[in-house]
Amino acid sequence: MTSRVDLEAVEQANTAFYEAMEGGDFETLSDLWLTGDEGDGVTCVHPGWPVLTGRGEVLRSYALIMANTEYIQFFLTDVKISVNGDTALVTCTENILSGAPSEEAGELGPLVGQLVVASNLFRRTPDGWRLWSHHASPVLAERDEDEDED
User: Fold this and answer.
1) Are 75 and 21 in contact (CB under 8 A)?
2) Which of 98-102, 113-117, 129-133 is the least confident region?
3) DSSP code string of 51-115
4) C-alpha span between 48 and 45 (Å, rounded)
5) How far apart are CA 27 and CA 20, in angstroms?
6) Mean pLDDT of the region 107-124
7) Cα distance between residue 24 and residue 38, in whole Å
8) pLDDT tier, 149 (very low <50, low <70, confident <90, very high otherwise)
9) Where in the numbering of this chain does the SnoaL-like domain appear (predicted)?
10) pTM for the full model?
């Protein structure tokens, strides 16, 4: 049986991940990923990107995204958390609002909305729950309400 404490700790780690992205806080984001030998096994798939493997490659991708994104906000829905021993899986829908820099200095470019489904895999460490894998895929088709009734 999964403890409420584990579920809350995983939820906090997941929330911290998205808050770090929103705030452009690369240091906090880096701290949320596995380190050491375990860091070699981390993976990440951003929407439309190939699989990134290893802590260095994954963190470089986030540095690139942060450097080229003026504004980003995540509204998470359909969040589901499951914990099995020292591994936890969070699935959610990322309702993303983002804007790139404008051509005029100091101005925000047009805002764009995007719907993405994500899986975040965490491992328990002595320092708390750390990301092992993030996989995000764009939602390209609307869900048919009739499918839910089957």
Assistant:
1) no
2) 98-102
3) PEESHHHHHHHHHHHHHT-SEEEEEEEEEEEEEETTEEEEEEEEEEEEEEEPSSTT-EEEEEEEE
4) 8
5) 8
6) 88
7) 25
8) low
9) 10-139
10) 0.87
Strand partners, 149: none
Percent over 90 (pLDDT), the chain: 74
User: 68 falls in which pLDDT band (50, 70, 90)?
Assistant: confident
Task: Please name the residues in contact with 139: beta carbons below 8 A apart, sequence gap of 6 or more.
Answer: 93, 115, 116, 117
Burial of 54 (0-12, 13-18, 19+ CB in 10 A): middle
**Rounded Cα–Cα distance for residues 30 and 60 (Å):** 10
Work out the angle at residue 5's Cα, subtended by the Cα atoms of residues 44 and 117, and round it to the nearest 5 degrees. Answer: 30
List the CATH code of the domain at 4-139.
Answer: 3.10.450.50
Question: Does residue 59 carry a pLDDT above 90?
Answer: yes
What type of residue sits at position 127?
D
Rg, Å, the chain Cα set: 16
Residue 96: pLDDT band with limits 50, 70, 90 = very high
Q: How far apart are CA 50 and CA 70, in angstroms?
A: 23
